[in-house]
Write a structure and sequence with these properties.
The structure holds 2 protein chains of 2 kinds.
Chain A lengths: L8 E10 L2 E11 L3 E6 L6 H8 L7 E6 L2 E2 L5 H6 L2 E4 L11 H5 L13 H14 L16 H13 L5 E5 L7 H16 L3 E5 L3 H7 L2 E6 L2 E7 L5 H9 L10 H9 L1
Parallel strand pairs in A: 3-8, 3-9, 6-7, 7-8
Antiparallel strand pairs in A: 1-2, 1-4, 4-5, 9-10
Chain B lengths: L9 H19 L1 E3 H8 L3 H13 L3 E8 L2 E8 L5 E7 L3 E8 L4 E8 L6 H18 L7 E8 L3 E2 L4 E2 L13 H9 L3 E5 H11 L9 E6 L3 E7 L2 E3 L29 H5 L1 H12 L4 H9 L3 H25 L3 E5 L7 H14 L9 E4 L6 H13 L16
Parallel strand pairs in B: 4-7, 7-10, 11-14, 14-15
Antiparallel strand pairs in B: 1-3, 2-3, 4-5, 5-6, 8-9, 11-12, 12-13
């Protein structure tokens, strides 16, 4: 919401090719603190590829990534996490046999003097679940006992461990019931209230327009429109997704100079 | 947790555990006994004993259910007589509450909605949420006596249709009560949300002790509910108290209702956000409220000016109705005295002081839940259930 400060995340001219497949071509994206940016588009529009670039899973072939105005590289998921980027992928990547606390701290367990500091981790787990106003009764419940919506809550809560600045959510409401969707959307509002930047990838226009501040449309790996979520109609956004309306891609100094070299 | 026994004694410990179990059940709506053990940290034997105690005291209900394929004992808050549903369709939120005949809310859920949400999608989601919430407390649709629905537009109570066109885009043509009752199979009653806020506040909230009151809902738009002699006054076509469409600027912008310079075009969310766009960029109404509460001068000023402008119009309503109290709810009321101070000043300055009792301007005791609780009350009253008003334990505020 503070448009004068440098964006939390700024992508300029990001390009990613898999052989002949152009997954992303010169994509620009800005996310500010305290802002929910929805990334929408058809299947294979490049939404998940972009999420993976931001999460450090994939490296772009060209383009510039800046965080808070500083150019950065995200060679690994760990480096992205260190810079304050937390990601929830579609498959959630949670462990069925472990309890809620263990899942929240998976791979980032807190060590005490001699062993894991379980008491501290449970305390933090209760804290993040409370921050989301979640409906998970106990942090000791094994994941296999939770509903799909509660698992999504655990996955979102996991992003809060380590105090991130940017949260990337890939299709968080797909395959959820309405009451579970209601909870996840409320969690997204909470993340925004806590001052984080959120990238929300979704197919559901109702969900997107309910919580997003801005809607960025991708089409065949290219930017195809940016909309104020409070003003744009369903029709305008869907026209951009389906290609009924086109925007002329702006020229990127970064991309042109790089393509001139390579 | 209060206890009559001395601290540290066996009985005070038992009392504390008992209220811990009860509070946990109330918080989650419905929990299995195994989940209760995990949530409270008490031993399975203790939980089992306490649940049996609470069951015989009539405070909880139990039912057999399955969790992960195993038989389990579901513990829910005890319901007195039957259930009713309250639905509040706001501009940006859908709120649903399940309540019993003692006005105890047993489950509730809110869902963020898009700007200009579509009537078909929203009613569909509302119906599905009702079913999901019933499942949470282990009840079925048959137990529901009625459904109350509040919408931010004037409603003709005879037909349940929105009586002024253009206020809710796309909702004018739809028979809300009929559409929903066809889905849910129970009677549905529709009313204006400010009227429902007035009903809730005068039955259970801040205006409980008064016969004549006005409820002002300052939200994405502004509306008012009028209570005369303990009854909500809706008017012939349900447009009584539509203060959002009182003209305040004869040269102002055209409003959704078709007139020029309505109060809504000056203090509605769009106008408040627009006036801050120059220096703060695009803000949502919740940002304006959050920033104003954090001490941002620009946002606080916008809220205060809105309070004064609403107050000037409420004063006119006050002259006509002569209420003992004005209760202020809606999202903007979350800024507390930032809104209420200038509003109170604007009202009292315009109304002659009577010698009997000064007019009070107070925040809603039910907060953001006033409208949904009012919808619940509407359904209960329509079902001919005697409305009990005899204690403070009826609806938990918070």
């Amino acid at each position: 919401m503070n448009s004068t400060a440098a964006p939390l995340l700024s992508l300029r001219g990001v390009t990613k090719r898999f052989g002949a497949v152009e997954a992303l071509v010169g994509v620009d994206l800005d996310v500010h603190a305290h802002e929910v940016v929805a990334l929408v588009g058809d299947n294979a529009a490049g939404k998940s590829t972009l999420a993976k670039v931001v999460a450090g899973v994939l490296q772009p072939d060209s383009g510039l990534i800046e965080m808070s105005g500083q150019p950065v590289t995200l060679p690994t998921p760990a480096s992205a996490h260190d810079l304050g980027v937390a990601t929830v992928f579609q498959d959630l990547a949670l462990c069925e046999n472990l309890d809620v606390t263990a899942n929240l701290f998976l791979g980032r367990e807190v060590r005490g003097t001699f062993a894991r500091n379980d008491a501290h981790m449970e305390q933090v787990a209760r804290g993040v679940l409370a921050a989301l106003a979640s409906r998970i009764p106990s942090v000791r419940t094994p994941l296999s006992h939770l509903s799909a919506g509660q698992r999504q809550t655990v996955a979102i809560a996991r992003t809060l461990i380590g105090e991130p600045r940017l949260v990337v959510l890939d299709e968080p409401t797909a395959a959820l019931s309405v009451v579970q969707t209601a909870e996840v959307l409320t969690h997204i509002e909470r993340l925004r209230d806590l001052g984080m930047g959120v990238i929300l990838i979704s197919h559901n226009m109702t969900d997107v327009r309910a919580v997003a501040d801005r809607v960025e449309v991708l089409r065949h790996g290219r930017n195809n429109g940016s909309f104020d979520a409070q003003r744009a109609s369903y029709e305008e956004i869907i026209a951009a997704i389906t290609g009924a309306t086109r925007i002329e891609p702006p020229l990127h100094p970064v991309e042109t100079s790089l393509s001139a070299v390579g | 947790m209060t206890s009559k026994a001395t601290a540290g004694s066996q009985s005070s410990l038992r009392e504390a555990n008992r209220s811990l179990v009860l509070q946990t059940v109330q918080r989650w709506g419905g929990l299995t006994q195994v989940e209760l053990v995990a949530a409270t940290g008490l031993s399975p034997a203790t939980v089992s004993t306490i649940v049996r105690d609470l069951l015989s005291a009539g405070l909880v209900d139990t039912a057999v259910t399955t969790r992960s394929g195993r038989r389990a004992q579901l513990v829910t808050v005890a319901r007195r007589v039957g259930l009713a549903v309250g639905i509040h369709v706001g501009h940006r939120h859908l709120r649903i509450a399940l309540g019993d005949f003692a006005h105890e809310v047993v489950a509730e859920q809110s869902l963020p909605l898009p700007t200009d949400h579509r009537v078909d999608t929203t009613l569909d989601r509302a119906a599905l949420l009702v079913v999901d919430l019933l499942e949470r407390v282990g009840a079925s649709l048959d137990e529901i006596t009625g459904v109350g629905v509040g919408v931010p537009a004037p409603v003709d109570s005879a037909t349940g249709l929105i009586s002024v066109r253009g206020i809710m885009r796309g909702w004018d043509e739809v028979h809300l009560g009929q559409t929903l009752s066809k889905r849910i199979g129970r009677p549905v009653f529709v009313d204006n949300d400010a009227n429902l806020g007035a009903l809730a506040e005068s039955t259970l909230g801040a205006a409980k002790a008064f016969r004549d009151s006005v409820y002002v809902r300052a939200s994405y738009g502004v509306g008012a509910g009028i209570v005369i002699d303990g009854r909500v006054h809706r008017g012939f076509a349900g447009t009584a108290g539509e203060i959002g469409h009182v003209q305040v600027n004869s040269a102002g912008a055209i409003c959704g209702c078709g007139n020029r310079g309505c109060l809504d075009t000056v203090v509605g969310a769009a106008a408040l956000v627009e006036s801050l766009r120059v220096n703060r960029g695009a803000l949502a109404l919740r940002d304006v409220i959050q920033l104003a509460n954090e001490g941002d001068q620009g946002c606080a000023r916008v809220v205060a000016d809105a309070g004064a402008q609403i107050g000037a119009v409420v004063a006119g309503l006050g002259q006509a109705v002569n209420p003992q109290i004005v209760v202020v709810g809606g999202e903007l009321a979350e800024t507390g005295e930032l809104l209420l101070g200038p509003m109170r000043e604007a009202i009292t300055r315009r109304i002659p002081v009577n010698q009997i009792a000064p007019l009070e301007v107070v925040p809603a005791a039910l907060g953001g839940r006033a409208e949904v609780v009012g919808a619940l009350l509407l359904a209960l009253q329509a079902a001919d259930v005697e409305v009990r008003v005899d204690g403070e334990d009826e609806v938990e505020v918070g």
